[in-house]
Amino acid sequence: VYSLDISGLRDDGAVVYINGHEVFRSNMPSGPIDCSTFAANGVGGSSETTFYTKVNVGGDVLVPGANIMAVEIHQATLTSSDLSFNAVVTAHILGSDKVILSPLEAEWSYSDDGTAHDYAGWEA
Questions:
Q1: How far apart are CA 93 and CA 99, in angstroms?
Q2: In angstroms, what is the C-alpha Rg of the chain?
Q3: Cα–Cα distance for residue pair 122/108, rounded to 1 Å
Q4: Is the peptide bond before 11 cis (omega within 30 degrees of 0)?
Q5: Fewer CB within 10 A of the terminal residue: the chain, N end or C end?
Q6: pLDDT attached to residue 109
Q7: Where are the domains of the chain?
Q8: In this structure, are residues 38 and 73 in contact, taking their beta carbons and an 8 Å threshold?
Q9: Are strands 52-57 and 3-11 parallel, antiparallel or unpaired?
């Protein structure tokens, strides 16, 4: 894989990381982000189903073999009633016209205990 195209749908805000490097944020304030950071604005109506921020991630972030994508989803307020996230990830493979979105039986992790996480040592 020599590059990835990533688009995200989020309610309310999101920060996307590849291999520990932030590659984009959507509806989030600038500066450091932690588990208590709120999204910049609430999302409602058609904005809840709109994909935002198509970015291309290249060789400066990707590594040979397995790459790890992590996403933080943030609410705009403590009382927000909903949360959602979806992504479209397209891999560009040198010398191939095939697109691998996610290998069969890939493992996904979810964590929501309100604390910042250290992902050192995580494996796919």
A1: 7
A2: 15
A3: 12
A4: no
A5: C
A6: 65
A7: 3-92
A8: no
A9: antiparallel
